[in-house]
Amino acid sequence: MDLSGKTVAIIGGGVSGIVQAKWLLQHQAQARILLFESRSDFGGVWDVSGSNGVMECTMCNVSRYLMELTDFPWPEGTIDFPHHSDVLNYIRSYAKEFIENTLIECHFNRKVKLVSKQQDSFVIETSNLQEPFETSTWIADCVIVANGHSSTPNFPFPVPKDLDFISHSASYKNHTLLGLQNKKVLVVGLSFSAVDIAVDLTRKGGNNVTVLTRRGSWFAPKRDKCNVPSDLKLPRLFTYLPHSVQNLLIKLSLNFKYFNQNHWQISNKCDPAGGNLVGSDDFVDLVRANKISVIHGSLEKVSHDKSVIISSREGADLKLAFDHVIFCTGYKPQFEFLSDDLNAGNELYPELYLNMIPLDHTLNLYYIGLFNVRYTSPFQVIDLQAQYIASLLTGKIALPDKTEMEKSVYSQKHHLATNCKAFRASLFISSDYRDNLARMIGKTPKLLDLLLSPRLFIEYYFGPITWAGYNISDSRLGKVARSSLNKTCDRAFGRHWFLKMNCILLGSVLSVTGAVLALSFYMM
Questions:
Q1: % helix / strand / coil in the chain, to the nearest 5?
Q2: Which residues, in sequence order, are CB contacts of 407 under 8 Å at separation 6+?
Q3: pLDDT over 60 at 46, yes or no
Q4: What percent of the chain has pLDDT over 70?
Q5: Spatial distance between the Cα atoms of 426 and 302, rounded to a whole number of angstroms
Q6: What angle do CA 414, 420, 426 make, to 5 degrees?
Q7: Closest CA to 230 of 242, 215, 218, 241
Q8: Distance of alpha carbon 267 from its chain centroid, rounded?
Q9: String of b and e for 216-247 (b: at least 16 CB within 10 Å)?
């Protein structure tokens, strides 16, 4: 697509929107770029003041090393697992560095009401949230949807609106806002938000908390015994293994190094590699101390008298009473502002090539951030997706034919149907997704660069996956990327790890050589 004289509209000013805008600029897109954000500043869900923003207790579940965006390091002194306010500051600093004072037109407090297609152009209708009766209409040649998929709460069954003791995790900010101090609370679900809420209620609210889960989750400690983030110990080579092997290795590792999760009946024989892996220390401690109860089953009914009917794993129905029920059952990836003819696919399996592009690519409609991830931060994937879309729009790469796109979509559907059973896993991407994107945009390191540097070879294949690994051979970022990868691996393996490894190898070689010489002397 030739962007000369065209208009590109980006909907959303969170990390997806600003990263996409940055890469359009980096690729020298000769277009007018509009960015619409309903809040008053950048940040998206990391802005705690928003209706669907993070909770006040939110700490990152993955380390900052995996959340680092291309060529934009975290400030010195940032803790391994940052507080949500640190992430918000990081995102806004990124926007200040790459977006502000550029030609990008940012429109804050603008809610997109409708996006429709008229001939070859998009018509975008917005309302001013500061002046409710002020509406505007914009024309664009290309639209990039970057407002995430955490806007429409998902409930497992229709919930009557008159039940004021029922809420969704989307509305949870702290234990006092909903008046839950010292209340008996049922938390439905066992993913990240459910764990955070259960811990917050127990630690700060003094609540009696019960967690209800159908499939359970596996729990990994955030740090190992040496206080190193556990996610830094997951090498790139691990993601190349078959799904079943990944499952087996994770289970063995967690049960052996952490604790027997089947004994405590948390995991319920679910698959950690299928999206049921949560990084948390506090939750496990509270379960083992009998301060949080876990029930395996399905919620069948909620009554006006605050009683609930639970179909337990053993087959019996339980009738229990709670003061409040919080559903932590994810979100529906719906885009209500898109006209019916633009809304691609259904809730669980969007008909999108690479989770980004409708099979009818002539629409010039793109999605960024429409996925869930395993083993890493969404920031990494967003970074690669934004580069892919920018490369596509500026003509640096081209889409395959429709048959190949359909084959890719079918393969993704099959992978999800086979390996990811939970609702929250419906948008999970395969573990090789990042490397495939990198290959398509020319970000795979040159083999010669890896072979010429043993340390670099080891860090790339046996170290954690970060943005640096995809830019080792980049003419502009290569030097910075190698330095960043060195520092991350020093954190993962310990300082001077490469020198220590060489000393061990040298010692081994000398020992073997000495043994051979001694044996030869003895036999003479």
A1: 35, 20, 45
A2: none
A3: yes
A4: 91
A5: 26
A6: 85
A7: 218
A8: 21
A9: bbbbbbbbeeeebbbbbebbbebbeeebeebb
The type of residue at 459 is E
**Rounded Cα–Cα distance for residues 364 and 357 (Å):** 8
Q: What is the pLDDT of residues 86-100, one digit of tens each?
A: 999 999 999 999 998
Pairwise CA distance, residues 494 & 517, whole Å:
34
Burial label for 346, CB within 10 Å (0-12, 13-18, 19+), is exposed
Q: For the segment 50-78, what is each residue's pLDDT rounded down to a tens digit?
A: 777 899 989 998 999 999 999 999 999 99
Closest by Cα among 313, 303, 466 to 376: 466
pLDDT digits (tens, 9 = 90+) for 103-134: 899 999 999 999 999 988 999 999 999 887 78
Cα–Cα dist 188/168, whole Å: 9
Q: How far apart (Å, rounded) are the C-alpha atoms in residues 384 and 113?
A: 28
- Residue partners of 436: CB distance under 8 A and separation at least 6: none
pTM reported for the whole predicted model: 0.90
